[in-house]
Prior knowledge:
By secondary structure, this protein is an alpha/beta fold. It has one domain (2-195): HUPs (Rossmann fold), CATH 3.40.50.620. It is built from eight helices and six strands. A six-stranded parallel beta sheet has the order 3-2-1-4-5-6, sandwiched between helices. Strand 1, helix 1 (16-28) and strand 2 form a beta-alpha-beta unit. The termini are far apart.
Amino acid sequence: MQRLGIFGGTFNPPHKGHIYIALEAIKGAALDKMLFVPCGNPPHKSVEGNVSPVQRFEMTRLAIADYPDFEITDLEMKSKEPSYTLKTLEKLKILYPDAKLCFVVGGDSVRDMKDWYHSEEIFKLAEIVALRRGGIDDSIFESSIELYKETYDAEITVVDILPTDVSSSELRRKIAKGCDVADLIAPSVLEYIKEFEIYKDKI
Length: 203
């Protein structure tokens, strides 16, 4: 059975930190593919910057183009509903009936999963690939993992990764100020940003 990683996010913009995380998740959780899912309408935060969902999708497509194990879907882009993880996983299960869905979650988000929309159903639909990076409280991380295993019979794979020193919000600020970010973003993505003057206005 194919182990299909699910990597959701705003990707605003997608950067080399995202690529690193996806590669480490593939290696650490023995995934066959990583499916990037740019969110259309995130329920708990707004999408900052003068950027459209279509532009975020296109930037992500460009960012992963050179990686044969990476794929992208516009599943959430097509929906007008809030991009709840459960709804996305239910749709992906229909699209990939023979795949094992492996949902990638950052270590800082692991403890909040119990409060997500119908979290118990998420644990039934997908294995959780929990990324443990330096700087987070290991005790909270570990206790959350144990809670989900005991309460929901969750299947969880922990992958240790190095902290990344790049964030999308910092990149937006740098781009707005005209700073050089060529070492943090794929050349094709940077060209796209320049062409459409994305993030030109001060964030």
